[in-house]
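Following the same procedure, sequence and fold were stored together, as reproduced here.

>
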Amino acid sequence: MYPGAQLMGESDNAKRWRARAEHLRSIAAVADDAIAKRNLMRLARDWERMADHDDHAERPPQPPAPSATKRRGPVKKSAEPH
């Protein structure tokens, strides 16, 4: 099975893309021709990318982590006047 197969909130489209990718991998596993096998595996990776893209597109954006908005110390003022 593929990594992240049981993602919560996985869309129906993403499930279909992943099923197609898995089907292509099963065909590639028994393919005798090296070029055909390579192409089938490439297509399977493309289907997985489409599923990942679909999953990320449907999730609401996450707010930045609190540590990303914190200042990293006091602001030092220059001793010389401008």
